[in-house]
Write a structure and sequence with these properties.
With 356 residues, the protein is mainly beta. Helices cover 13% and strands 37% of the residues. The protein has a single domain, classed as Cupredoxins -  blue copper proteins (Immunoglobulin-like, Sandwich), CATH 2.60.40.420. A hairpin with a 2-residue loop joins strand 5 and strand 6. The protein starts with a helix and ends with a strand. The structure holds copper (II) ion.
Length: 356
């Protein structure tokens, strides 16, 4: 047991440069994030706390910088009954991804990315998710939301063999910060391989007259929402040697990515993070911010915070919530955020906000 443990620690540490001065390539200086968020640029600090080299995002086919804000709002139509119907297309594929410099992982991915697309809808709409399985194993999509047993994404209810398709239909209910994942067995293998993503349902202000302003602040496309610097962060881990333990941790899959390219945020606008935990093998993950406190909405299903003025929260696997904070009263600079499990932070789940 001890030798196995030591071997694991040795394996986990093998790819990390403990305190080297890093020759970081100047990546994408000033890359604009989509609409409402900030930008990402190459790091000047914290070089001793990260891995050496850079991941080839072009080869992966997705960029964690873009994943922060690239909501998939699908296609909206009105059906014969006058319902707002929002349709999404998701395809599962086998894909090898680089999760830390030189560390490749044989992933299963929705739409070729890990995490999968961040689906975003409005409370009360009818959702149609057209799922095609182009992978090598049977897969499904199991939504954390309200739906019938027939749409559950388990055996007999939307489990899809390679080459087949299925359309999941459900109401967009309840509003909140949700997620989806494959529910084929063995479950932990199918989740850990990368088949998961964010599922955000914005509140409909008309259904919440007492809290309409707060609801509009959440609803994508409103002026109230545009004030916010919104981003999605999926906490995940990767078992690169298939010993049922993670060797790499991250938010949005790429170890240390947001320390090499800090996420630029403005002091002038509040920050909202849709945070989900899809980490397999470890019972909990956590989020901790330096030099600041935040309000937290567990599952995002309320418009008033469930936790006020905290700087650390934990989530079990499948748990998620919304973090809201502001740097309005702070001096500009780099503020770290990371898992408060030190091991997770050292193995990749370490990030920085560049406050300007
Ligand atoms: Cu699967």
């Amino acid at each position: 047991m001890l030798s196995r443990l030591l071997q694991t620690v040795s394996n986990r540490r093998a790819f990390l440069g403990a305190s080297a001065a890093l020759p970081l390539a100047p990546l994408v200086a000033g890359t604009a994030l989509a609409q409402s968020s900030g930008s990402v640029h190459s790091a000047t600090h914290f070089d001793g706390m990260t891995s050496i080299g850079n991941v080839d995002h072009d080869r992966n086919g997705f960029d964690p910088n873009a994943i922060l804000t690239d909501w998939d709002t699908g296609t909206l139509s009105i059906d014969a009954q006058g319902r707002r119907v929002r349709s999404f297309d998701i395809t599962a594929v086998d894909i090898e991804i680089e999760i830390a410099p030189g560390i490749f992982f044989p992933a299963w991915a929705y739409n070729g990315r890990v995490p999968g697309p961040t689906l975003r809808a409005t409370e009360g709409e009818w959702l149609k998710v057209n799922f095609t399985n182009a992978g090598s194993h049977t897969h499904s999509i199991h939504f954390h939301g309200i739906h019938s047993a027939r749409m559950d994404g388990v055996a007999g209810a939307g489990l899809v063999a390679p080459g087949d398709s299925f359309t999941y239909e459900m109401p967009a209910m309840p509003f909140g910060c949700h997620l989806y994942h494959c529910h084929a067995t063995p479950l932990k293998r199918h989740i850990h391989k990368g088949l998961y993503g964010g599922f955000i349902i914005d509140p409909d202000p008309e259904r919440h007259p007492e809290e309409a302003e707060a609801a509009r602040g959440r609803l994508l496309g409103t002026p109230e929402n545009a004030r916010w610097q919104e981003m999605v962060m999926v906490m995940n881990g990767f078992d690169t040697n298939f010993d049922d333990e993670n060797e790499v941790y991250a938010v949005n899959s790429i170890a240390h990515e947001y320390i090499k390219r800090p996420i630029t945020v403005s002091r002038d606008r509040p920050i909202r993070i849709y945070l989900m935990n899809l980490t397999e093998f470890d019972p909990i993950n956590s989020f901790h911010i330096h030099g600041n406190f935040f309000d937290y909405y567990d599952h995002g299903t309320t418009l008033t915070p469930t936790l006020k003025t905290v700087d650390t929260i934990m989530q079990c696997q499948g748990q998620r919530g919304i973090i809201e904070m502001s740097f309005a009263d702070h001096e500009p600079g780099q503020y770290m955020f990371h898992a408060h499990q030190s091991e997770f932070a050292e193995l990749g789940w370490m990030s920085v906000f560049e406050v300007v």
